[in-house]
Write a structure and sequence with these properties.
Elements lengths: L2 H17 L12 E2 L4 E2 L1 H21 L16 H15 L2 H25 L1 H23 L4 H20 L7 H18 L1
Antiparallel strand pairs: 1-2
Helix pairs in contact: 1-4, 2-3, 3-4, 3-7, 4-5, 4-6, 4-7, 5-6, 6-7
């Protein structure tokens, strides 16, 4: 694959990742959608089922397209894993926690990948921890009025679990899913204590 084409695919994947940061706008929708007369959670289900149907078709036909990595040709692609993670956190986590997990993953996963290539693993880990903490802290602080110490703890736990999930390589489960669900679950559990 030519370098220019490879770089274009990387840029496409990075931009797609960053667009995930817009997912918390889901919460700006009215709970009852007036035109469709359905609850907004129906959109999450339709979104996820649509991605699943497309992914099943893609796998059956052996399709590839811009942004798909070579190893994803015969397995569930990262975008499908990301869709599962997005649906899970939007549906199961408190709004502020879901927003923090979504914005954190959207920004930090591409950052970690670029830094790992350019600066090495240790710089990528430290920078990713710091970036996720700042993003999660900002979202949690601005979204919901929680105790300041709890926001710090949630952001710290979120950053540690997200970066740990990004670094964990599981053969068939993409880190896009893990970087959403693991910190989302960890932060949610802490809000219940």
């Amino acid at each position: 694959m030519p370098v220019q084409t490879m770089r274009r695919e990387v840029v496409f994947r990075r931009v797609a990742h960053l667009l995930i940061a817009l997912a918390p706008l889901y919460y700006a929708l009215p709970v009852e959608l007036p035109i469709l007369s359905v609850h907004r959670w129906t959109l999450v289900v339709v979104f996820f089922l649509g991605i699943c149907a497309f992914e099943a078709y893609r796998l059956k036909k052996g399709m590839t397209f811009l942004g798909l990595r070579p190893h994803e040709r015969g397995q569930i692609a990262s975008f499908a894993w990301a869709a599962a993670g997005i649906a899970a956190v939007l549906w199961l986590c408190p709004h502020d926690v879901a927003a923090a997990a979504l914005v954190g993953m959207a920004c930090v996963d591409p950052l970690a990948g670029e830094l790992r290539k350019a600066k090495g693993d240790s710089v990528a880990v430290v920078s990713s921890l710091a970036a996720y903490f700042v993003l999660a802290f900002s979202v949690l602080f601005l979204w919901e009025w929680r105790d300041g110490l709890l926001v710090v703890i949630l952001a710290a736990v979120g950053s540690i679990t997200a970066v740990g999930a990004e670094r964990t390589k599981v053969r068939y489960v993409d880190d896009d899913f893990l970087m959403l669900v693991v910190p989302g679950a960890a932060m949610t559990l802490l809000t219940l204590i």
